[in-house]
Amino acid sequence: MKITTPKLNIFLEHIYEGAEQQSITPEIMLTYAKEAGYDGLECDLWRLSEKSETKKLFDSTGLTVSSVYNMYDLGHEDISLSKEKIHSHLETAAYFGAKTVLAVAGFIAPEDNFDAIRGKMAETLCYMCEAAKQYGITVTLEDFDDNAAPYSTSDGLLWFMENVKGLSFTFDTGNFAYSLENAEDAYIKLRKYISHVHLKDRSRDRSRANTENTNGKPDLSGRVMYPCEAGNGYIGIEGLVKKLLNDDYKGSLSIEHFGANDQLMYMKKSAENVLRMIKEM
């Protein structure tokens, strides 16, 4: 069987954070990303507000935009405001040539009517998926690592996949660990909906904490998880990457390690690890 070689992306936020850490320009950091083997970028919508200048910057380093993500409050805010934000999101993604967008749909508070808020989220996501068709863009939801997100677990995500026509899944390999779920089990349950992947690994190594000790995230058991290079943690990235490729995954892979002490080093090591995994296939 011929294996499709996926495009490798890096989060744009890591580029800016790494540039600051190294006291270099974002353009130089983007050049380092390209040299390390990255082809694309995973972008926060607000970073793309200066469209023309930002696109020139990306074009100058040969990197394209793979996916654009944005935070929403679809369950609470007026639907007309949500629709306005949705169209801005889709138009910006289309301008940069992204074929995928990620909507972090919002959160449900303990005092909320769970079914009503989740239902409103689903209704607005239905509108977003329909609107995205004219741009040739796929709308996705991810396993967001927050208990207030009704899509933090595989069962929660499955409900949205089954109730929102046209919605796809951005599989974040590291976020099911927050909910104490096995990423491989979640993958099997949701794989037919996957159109995009965030390769995130986790570590229990306290030496990875930053100087302010703000980059650790407790899982639901209270044990702290730290960012690490893809393939160097306990999530089982290598097995997941090989399962994706064996199952003929057609999308790209976006390396993610928010809070890394040394974004440049993490970025290079993650690419080295993942490109080796792909080559072995």
Q: Can you summarize the main beta sheet?
A: 8 strands, parallel, barrel
Distance between the termini: 10 Å
The secondary structure category is alpha/beta
Level-2 CATH architecture: Alpha-Beta Barrel
CATH topology: TIM Barrel
- Got a strand count? 10
- Computed over alpha carbons, the radius of gyration is 18 Å
Percentage of residues in strands: 15-25%
Supply the CATH superfamily name. Answer: Divalent-metal-dependent TIM barrel enzymes
Q: Number of helix segments?
A: 9
Helix content: 40-55%
Mean pLDDT: 96
| Shape, principal axes of CA atoms | globular
CATH class value = Alpha Beta
Q: Give the strand order, joined by hyphens, for the main sheet.
A: 1-2-3-4-5-6-7-10
SSE arrangement, N to C: EHHEHEHEHEHEHEEEHEH
Structural domain count: 1
| Poorly predicted tracts of residues | none
Describe it for me?
- By secondary structure, this protein is α/β, with parallel strands linked by helices.
- It has a single domain, classed as Alpha-Beta Barrel (TIM Barrel), CATH 3.20.20.150.
- The chain is built from nine helices and ten strands.
- It has an eight-stranded parallel barrel with strand order 1-2-3-4-5-6-7-10, surrounded by five helices.
- Strand 4, helix 5 and strand 5 form a beta-alpha-beta unit.
- The chain is globular.
- The N and C termini lie close together (10 Å).
Topology summary:
Blueprint: E1 8-11, H1 12-22, H2 26-36, E2 40-44, H3 51-61, E3 64-71, H4 79-95, E4 100-104, H5 114-132, E5 138-142, H6 154-163, E6 168-172, H7 183-190, E7 194-203, E8 217-218, E9 224-228, H8 237-246, E10 253-256, H9 263-280
Parallel strand pairs: 1-2, 1-10, 2-3, 3-4, 4-5, 5-6, 6-7, 7-10
Antiparallel strand pairs: 7-9, 8-9
Helix pairs in contact: 1-2, 2-3, 2-9, 4-5
